TrEMBL record:
InterPro entries: HTH_MarR-typ, MarR/SlyA-like, Tscrpt_reg_MarR-type_CS, WH-like_DNA-bd_sf, WH_DNA-bd_sf. It holds the Pfam family MarR_2. Keywords: DNA-binding, Transcription, Transcription regulation. This is HTH marR-type domain-containing protein. Residues 1-99 form the HTH marR-type domain. It comes from the Bacteria.
Amino acid sequence: MSILEAAERPLPLGEVASALGTSHQNARQIVDALARKGFVEVGLDDADRRRRLLSLSEQARAFWAGRSVDDTAVVTAWFAVLDGDERRQLADLLARLIGEGSALSGHEEEAAPR
C-alpha cells in the first residue's frame, strides 16, 4: 500500500511486484486480499486490457490518515533490520500464508505441518 500511495498514477501489478522484490503471483495474492478488504482498487489498462492497474482506495487513504507518524516509524524500523533478500523472503512467506489462510477460512482445524 505504501508503494501505491507514493505513486503518482495507478501502477501495473508487475511494477508493484518488482518494487516489493517478490513474484507476480505473490504480489497478486496480497493485492487480491487488500482488494477484498476494500483497500486497493484494481482496474484494467485501457491500452492493454490484460494489465491490471492498482491504486489505493479512498477507504485506505482514510484509514492511513487516521494513523500516527509514530506507527509508521515503528513499522519502518521493523523492516529496516532486513536486507533485500530477507524482505523478499518475508513477502513470499506472507503471500503463502494469505493463500493458505484463504483456503482454510471458515474451518477450525489447523493446517497440517509441512
